[in-house]
Amino acid sequence: MSRTKVVPLPVMGRHNINAYLLLGRRPVIVDAGTPGSGRRIYEQVAAHGVDPTDVSLIVITHGHIDHFGSAAELHRLTGAPVAGHVADLDPYRTGRAREPYLPTGLMGRLMARNKKLHMQVEPFEPGVLVAGETDLEDFGIAARIMPTPGHTAGSVSVLTDQGDLVAGDLIANSFFGLVRGRPANPPFHDDPLRNLASLREMLALNPTALHVGHGTPLEPDRVRRWADRELQRLSRLGTSRARRGSD
Length: 247
Prior knowledge:
Oligomer: single chain
Order of helices and strands: EEEHEHHEHHEEEEEEHEHEH
Shape: globular
């Protein structure tokens, strides 16, 4: 099968929120952005010389509104089925992200007050249910959907055979993508330790680059160093909480 090319599709700003176009024998879209961005994604796909009605699949990385907000619209525009993990079915079927949002820091605490994150969007029913590692050869690209729980229970990434990891919110650029190339937690994680374990599992597969939902691609060795520091930080945080609990 031909090499899979990863093309960013900016949804907000230059890199603040990204969807992705994967080009192989047939095109695949990863993520659907915020509500009302379906037409923008559709037009960007066309601008890259791809007929949007040729898209074979729309993969949603997780059940937060900035990633599935236009899934139903994009499905109508392209006719492509939508793939989502079974553990995030409730957000997809109700159009509401699972709450409460659990901030990873100051940015998350500020963003959690944003009413747009708590709105109801158009729901959708995934036509392709993901429960484990899923080969995408039948959809025209040399890649696999990889479950990467932690950010949400149903978070997934897409790993191409060439080593590009389209990682959703497994990791981000600092300050919601504003500081390029600097690894950081996204504003929210349901389970930071499980997410970090998923990240380290993906790094063990030796990806060549991490294409993220917020920011520019990240260099794997830099992410590895960040992940080592983050493990130490979370371990210290857990020890501190345990000590307070025993007092």
